[in-house]
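Late entry, written up from scratch paper. The run itself happened at the end of the previous shift, but nothing got recorded in the book at the time, so transcribing now.
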Amino acid sequence: QVQLVESGGGLVQAGGSLRLSCAASGRTFSVYVMGWFRQAPGKEREFVAAISRTGGGTSYADSVKGRFTISRDNAAKTVYLQMNSLKPEDAAVYYCAADTFRSEIGATSMNGQQYNYWGQGTQVTVSS
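Output as recorded:
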């Protein structure tokens, strides 16, 4: 079992920054892929970023490349999403997720169905 708890969401002006955190407990954190997804009202959940077990491999959605950075601290059992240059279209509930079947990212890491544990989400609101 893995429990995931996100934090760090809030209200920010366009152009601002936020850092989301996701604390994990349960199974050994350092051996599996972690991802961030988001869902805006009336829209489907979408992939944001993923990171391999060591942090050496990362993947990003085109819409956030160059603005968002995913990282992890295995000792702290935490994955982060640094979000810079935020836009109103980035507003959503952000979820972290764990894919405990895989240790390295690949093309399928963008598929939410690959992830078997999810956090409860944290709201990000961006004012224009």
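The two ends are 40 Å apart (CA to CA).
(Scratch paper discarded after transcription.)
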